[in-house]
Amino acid sequence: MLYVVTGPPAAGKSSWIQAHATARDIVIDLDLIAVALTGPGAPQWNHDPIVQRVAQRARFAAIEEACQHLDKVDCYLIHTMPSAKAMAKYKRLDAEIKVVDPGRDIVMSRIEAMRSPEMQRVATRWYSQRKTMPRSVMPQASRQW
Question: How many Cα atoms occupy the beta-carbon half-sphere of 12 within 13 Å?
C-alpha cells in the first residue's frame, strides 16, 4: 500500500509516519534523505540548495523503485503539495492520501520557531490550495513542540 502524507510545512507529517509505519516499511521523506546525504551536524531542515537538489533526485528515484514493490511492502511518502499529475499517479496506484494539518496558527508558529522564512510562503500556498484536498486526518497538534 502507498500512503501519501501531505500537509503544510511543520504540520507533523514525519511524526504521523513515525506513529504508523513499521521498521519493514519504506519511508520517503525529503528531510530524512537530505540528512542521510550530509555529514555530522547538518541541519534537520533548511538544507543547502545543492543538498536539496541531490536529495530531490534521490527522492524521485526512491519513489519510482518503491512503487515497483507495493505488493510486498507499505510505502509512506511525504508530498507536501502534490500536483494534479502526481495525484493522478497516486490514484492509479490506489494510494491512500493522508492529510496532516494541525491548523494554520500552529503551523505558522512552528515555522517561525524552526524553519526558514520561505516556508511561510509554502504554508500560505498550501492553505490557499487546501480546499481541493481531502479532509484532514489530524486536526490537532501532532506533538509537543
Answer: 23
